[in-house]
Structure to design on (206 residues):
């Protein structure tokens, strides 16, 4: 007799790695093939991953700029007694926390596009140079990052909400499919494990 194309009870799941997901030979099964285990992630999952990446990048930049602000405030508190050694000490600390040495070196050498000249020796000229760094470079960067961080946080929250809704709907569908052939568990009883993705009534087989 020809063998049925349906898997007998107790056979390995059709979604197990290495299993054949398409009907073999000329079987005439009516059930559609199951999704392969290597199926691409859902749109909400992809959206969440991308939003998380954007938020992490902007948040990292914001944290580093916060460290720069703290160091600059420390130097400005010294007034006209600030020295080049004080500046170098703060910059060394920033590098230890992950700041780009080339960016800081370019700042010391002067940033003509921002209207900042090379670092002067010390005293009032250095105090004025630090004030110029703050007004021409640090403050504009902070003003640009604040809305960018707020937007990244909002996008991450929206993406997370979509992902939660998707998982909730997926879990609810599996629960409804598994409960179609039996009574609901009694109140206070331990919930049974979720039905197999290949069990009769599973959304994957509908």
């Amino acid at each position: 007799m020809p063998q049925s194309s349906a898997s007998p009870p107790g056979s390995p799941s059709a979604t197990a790695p290495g299993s054949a997901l398409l009907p073999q030979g000329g079987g005439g099964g009516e059930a559609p093939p199951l999704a392969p285990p290597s199926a691409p992630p859902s749109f909400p999952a992809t959206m969440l991953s991308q939003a998380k990446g954007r938020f992490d990048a902007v948040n990292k930049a914001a944290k580093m700029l916060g460290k720069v602000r703290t160091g600059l405030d420390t130097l400005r508190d010294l007034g006209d007694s600030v020295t080049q050694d004080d500046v170098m000490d703060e910059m060394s600390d920033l590098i230890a926390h992950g700041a780009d040495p080339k960016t800081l070196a370019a700042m010391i050498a002067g940033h003509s596009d921002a209207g900042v000249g090379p670092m002067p020796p010390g005293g009032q000229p250095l105090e004025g140079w630090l004030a110029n760094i703050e007004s021409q470079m640090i403050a504009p960067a902070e003003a640009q990052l604040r809305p960018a961080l707020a937007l990244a946080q909002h996008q991450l929250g929206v993406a997370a909400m979509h992902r939660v809704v998707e998982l909730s709907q997926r879990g609810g569908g599996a629960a409804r499919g598994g409960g179609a052939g039996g009574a609901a568990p009694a109140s206070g009883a331990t919930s049974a494990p979720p039905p197999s993705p290949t069990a009769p009534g599973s959304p994957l087989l509908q």
Observations:
- Confidence is low (pLDDT under 50) at residues 12-27, 181-206.
- Residues 150 and 184 are 45 Å apart (CA to CA).
